[in-house]
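Intended use. Records like the one below are meant for learning the mapping from a protein sequence to its folded structure. Do not use them to infer anything beyond what is encoded.
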Amino acid sequence: MYNNNKSNTETLAKYLSLDQGGKVQAEYIWIDGDSGLRSKTRTLDFKPADVSEINEWNFDGSSTNQAPGDDSDVLLRPVAIFKDPFRGGDNILVLNECYNNDGTPNRTNHRHSCAKIMKTYTDQHPWFGIEQEYTLFESDGSVLGWPKGGFPGPQGPYYCSVGANVAFGRDVVEAHYRACLYAGVNISGINAEVMPGQWEFQVGPCEGIDMGDHLWIARFLLQRVAEDFGIIVSFHPKPIKGDWNGAGCHTNYSTKAMREEGGIKAIHAAIDKMAARHADHIIVYGEDNDQRLTGRHETGHISQFSYGVANRGASIRIPRHVAAEGKGYLEDRRPASNIDPYRVTQIIVESSLA
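Structure written out for the chain above:
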């Protein structure tokens, strides 16, 4: 069951309604050395109109697996601003890149190289839409909605489900959806997934580097919302072993040429190039993805590349309406739920356009 945090939330609301005296709280957010998210808050004397107006900051990288203890300062360089749905008002969320003291990108900073690639191919207008699957757990480690010490009924009634006996965690999901809309994240939808306690939200279409920025902020918002409900979010691609669906990050992709008349030729050309680099893609398509890409539960096998029209068991799916219209986009179904979207979008553009 959910932790009862209602009284704490009401108490907090009393303080959050206090006047801030013209000050702005800026929540600096960054990706740590274990592909997790960290954040801390700084007071600004003004409301920034552009991210370039926000100063760099730093943190102890030895505590986030990003630097050794004898040279632990890691710099935070602001790259994007979003509205803060938790504090409201003029308060903001600030996404950052991490840099070493010598000015080089930290080894965990995959945004830096991704931004270069996106700039190189900006004339191709690469669009992305990512379907982020995740699983909700209670504080005792059990999947939300599952019977204690047991298992729910077989998969079937839970996908896009409605009803207290099949849909578990909707309040977390709805709160997250609204928080994303308020923040300015380009969230495009939500749905309950095949495994009970598992959900999905979609972000996009986003062009270029915006895809990674918006997905990371959406993940941050999900974890913060779940924190308020006393719920734990897992992005593991196979959180429950056995005959249960894993969690992915299906990545939809198109270029200007693919979206124009006759674009199906460009789609097939991109698929051929991506097939030739299947192993390279798998390397950056998520940790423990071999537990998910087994050829079962709507996946292709991790060691084999395949594609097909409307085939959810393929590595890459061409939606049926795309094949019929002769233009549109492709869906790469290989990425796991714990991907770094900067690495995934970068290699997709590199492979398909180089």
